[in-house]
Design goal:
The structure is a homodimer of 258-residue chains. In chain A, 33% of the residues lie in helices and 21% in strands. Chain A is α/β, with parallel strands linked by helices. The first copy, chain A, has two domains: 95 residues, Ribosomal protein L30/S12 (60s Ribosomal Protein L30, Chain: A, 2-Layer Sandwich); 149 residues, Alpha/beta knot (3-Layer(aba) Sandwich). The first copy, chain A, starts with a strand and ends with a helix. Chains A and B meet through helix 7 and helix 11 of A and helix 7 and helix 11 of B.
Chain lengths: 258, 258
């Protein structure tokens, strides 16, 4: 079905280069791996696929989906795929796609419920947070510049397609809040007031801090409300996982007022 | 400070054996790695440390903690530690400890809020769920027999000390519910009634399903209430991560009634 068979030196070099953030930014491209997510990417236009590397059996099974992408398909053996995969378990397919620029800037925020991630470093957490944002219909996930790269392979895998649907932007919290002074800014901290029983707004920004150090001091100053999730008295935990905390705060903000 | 220096063949064999569930069960021992968690384990008696493998600098820094454990300490070089570590980033210390038997059976349940995990397979999810249980003061985490082993290295790492505080038991849901017919059983499913606005009890069992297939059919029959977390209409996600969902349901059950 595809005219190009085998992994050329140049294509291999290109795929391996895209494992680095710098090269992803240079080419404005990133890689998605795996059957389900690849099929999602081939069915949309926001992140156009540039190249599709797949085994002959995957190509055979997905003929229909590939119809409009024929000139982009390269047939690889499983061992060739393994050479360019960033996963430990080899996959049947790997897609190179454009990074979509959501073109959101500080003045252009949706007035819905949004997240601001202050230095989320763990790729698994970042991907899971994008999934949560997708689930709850969060309008935008804003990231500080020291967050893990959104297009890193582990983030894309953990996000499971949410990357296609959740608008993201890299922006300082200062810029975002200065341009939207009436938008309420909630920060999740360990010593804030209990989130339970508060009347939470439908629209607002929820700031989530880094896994280890929480929200940066300069960003703490920009919060309007500091909120916490009460722990059990006997708990020995100092904090919850950042993605779990994000899920809980989103669920509580989305809870209809009694 | 320690009399024993270097990694003997037998000790190496023992440590590597403990990476398998079968051997952990045979010896009733497991391994914790890393500075913070090792210090937690050396300060408690529920899971008594049997052997402590550490670099000389770690031993020097933690003299006080090691005072009561002197005969258990083995000094290793960093490269020796690397040979027996199950982590990619080498650590300064590794502790072999007894597996504590919480001696809970079906008739002996606390009447508080408990979790039942139906086939949680991902070690990161399991560890994160134990952290959540610790945070919310969950009375017991019950596991079906097909859950990932609680004492697997990745679970212990992700649990970050919660394993010391959260009672766990492996038990069938049938046995648990038959022995406690008045305990309300809530199952988290995709097509249940919205959890929002329900009057949730302070005591009860929350059943969490497997990452892919959810709650097993035979366990679905045992539920008294099927509850769901509503997603946004435009969401493309089929489900939330199992640990995130657990955190959200625990937070909602712990929310004081308005």
């Amino acid at each position: 079905m595809s005219d190009v068979i085998g992994l050329s030196k140049n294509k291999k070099k290109y795929l391996l280069a895209l494992q680095s953030k710098k090269q992803r930014q240079k080419y404005n491209k990133f890689v998605v791996e795996g059957d389900k997510i690849a099929r999602e990417f081939l069915s949309q236009n926001l992140f156009p696929p540039e190249l599709i590397f797949a085994t002959s059996s995957w190509i055979e099974t997905n003929k229909k989906l590939l119809k409009v992408h024929l000139n982009k398909v390269v047939t690889l053996s499983e061992s060739e795929l393994k050479q360019v995969s960033s996963l430990t378990t080899p996959n049947q397919v790997l897609v190179v796609a454009d990074i979509h620029s959501w073109a959101l800037d500080a003045k252009d925020v949706s007035k819905g419920l949004a997240l601001y991630l202050d230095g989320i470093r763990d790729p698994g957490n970042m991907g899971t947070i994008l999934r949560i944002a997708d689930w709850f219909g969060i309008s935008t996930v804003y990231c500080s510049s020291d967050c893990v790269d959104l297009y890193m392979s582990k983030v894309v895998q953990a996000a499971m397609g949410a990357i296609l649907r959740v608008p993201t932007a890299i922006l300082s919290l200062e810029e975002l809040t200065q341009s939207n002074p009436e938008w309420p800014v909630y920060g999740t901290v360990l010593d804030g007031s209990s989130v339970y029983g508060q009347s939470l707004p439908e629209a607002g920004l929820i700031v989530i801090g880094n896994e280890g150090r929480g929200i940066k001091p300069e960003n703490l100053k920009l919060l309007h409300h500091k909120i916490s999730l009460p722990s059990a008295q006997e708990s020995g935990m100092e904090s919850l996982n950042a993605a779990v905390a994000t899920g809980i705060f989103c669920a509580l903000f989305r809870q209809p007022n009694a």
